[in-house]
Amino acid sequence: MPRREESASYRTLGWVGDEQTGHLRLIDQTRLPTEFIEIDCRDVPTVWEAIKLLRVRGAPAIGVAAGYGAVIGARSQGVKDEGTVRKALAEATAYLRTSRPTAVNLFWALDRMDAAAAATPPSNGPALLKRLLHEADAIAEEDRAMCRSIGKFGAELVQAGEGILTHCNAGGLATADYGTALAVIFSAQEQGKHVHVFADETRPLLQGARLTAWELQRRGVPVTLICDNMAAQVMKERKIQKVVVGADRIAANGDAANKIGTYGVALLAKAHGIPFYVAAPSSTFDLSIADGSAIPIEQRDPQEVTHGFGRQTAPAGVSVYNPAFDVTPAELISGIITEKGVIRPVNAGTIREVLAG
Ligand SMILES: CSC[C@H]1O[C@H](OP(=O)(O)O)[C@H](O)[C@@H]1O
Fold first, then answer.
1. Which residues take part in binding substrate (predicted)?
2. Domain count for the chain
3. Active site residue 286
């Protein structure tokens, strides 16, 4: 049963109860900003659907949701027999891997859940399930800590009074808490360095208009919403001194996949001499791929484009191209703000050095 509640401080998602009878609770982000609805996920298909339909979204938040989804799946065929729990976990993680292809955090989290089970010596079903919930909780807690550290390092780059442009939503809603790109802004604000944010609405699903503007308003950060096609003009008018965005998967050389439109913003920033930063935790790096050409780009339902805003906005049968992400080459990125420090210049060597730190 959905819960309607506008709490002063919200929790994007989290576990409620114990490992045997508890469940995942998450804000249904498709209902924001007009409705604050939380949904309780008690089976794996509900978690899968929540990820697929962006009820929960944002690379780190998807990873956290997948971790808890693995716990729900592991107990789905009974808890008593340990072999049954192991088999159910494997089926659940394999299924959750099919929900969305681009955010590497999904696969990173599910790998962690599978590895936690493999590293747990034979015991019994309840003990294994408790261990799995512990791992899912650790993924969430680590993400909270990484976001605050990203905020700390990122805020050092911010000057009071700057105009900062961001694209899509890389706020608390995209993570376990506090965000990545928005963490930079929240942390700067907490240090008394107030900035003005220009938020791209981010078609077709409007994460910027619906979610970033909502988050910033709630925290008292001045925000101006712009259409995606206005970014060049606000840069030309010298309203923007910095761009900070999130990421869904960063290759070993620093090429970064993020919401569609990010690559264009990076090109505009370059053309206007504006620093362009990516903020992402180490769990968003995929060092198994050399460059961005290997990042799978999700293709989404054409109706997201033709039936946005609650009405049909294109002729029936029109051909639609709807990639959900694009890849910004490392040479357009001034620095990558991680929980371990700022990677700059951005290249395979500096990435290895900072992530190893
Ligand atoms: C902090 S990662 C946020 C990242 O995820 C978003 O994609 P989606 O809304 O489709 O999950 C977007 O690329 C954000 O930058």
1. 57-59, 100, 207, 258-259
2. 2
3. no
Q: Which of 177, 228, 248, 326 is catalytic?
A: 248
- The Cα-based distances of 84 to 78, 111, 125, 198 in angstroms read 7, 19, 8, 51
| pLDDT tens sequence across 241-277 | 999 999 999 999 999 999 999 999 999 999 999 999 9
Examine the pLDDT at 175 and tell me if it is beyond 70.
yes
Q: What is the C-alpha separation between 333 and 40, in angstroms, rounded?
A: 39
168 Cβ below 6 A of ligand 1: yes
CA of 159 to the centre of ligand 1 (A): 25
* Residues 233 and 334 grouped into a single domain: yes
Residue type, 349: G
- CA-based R_g, the chain, Å: 20
How do residues 129-156 score in pLDDT, each as one tens digit? 999 999 999 999 999 999 999 999 999 9
**ipTM exceeds 0.95, yes or no:** yes
pTM value? 0.97
Domain CATH code at residue 130: 1.20.120.420
| Same domain assignment for residues 126 and 226 | no
Pairing of strands 163-166, 196-200: parallel
Contact 338, 355 (CB under 8 A): yes
- Mark whether 138 and 199 lie in a shared domain: no
One domain for residues 266 and 312: yes
Ligand 1 centroid from CA 347, angstroms:
22
CA–CA dist 185, 356 (Å, integer): 26
We report the CATH number of the domain holding residue 177 as 3.40.50.10470
Residues 31 and 159 in one domain: no
Domain containing 330 equals 152-355
The one-letter amino acid code at 209 reads: A
Between CA 342 and CA 161 the distance in angstroms is 22
Using a 10 angstrom Cβ sphere, with 0-12 exposed, 13-18 middle and 19 or more buried, the burial of residue 307 is middle
Would the CB of 212 count as within 6 Å of ligand 1? no
Do 188 and 260 belong to one domain?
yes
The finding on whether 324 has its CB within 6 A of some atom of ligand 1 is yes
The CA distances from residue 285 to 70, 224, 338, in Å, are 22, 30, 10
Ligand 1 atom closest to the Cα of residue 62 is 11
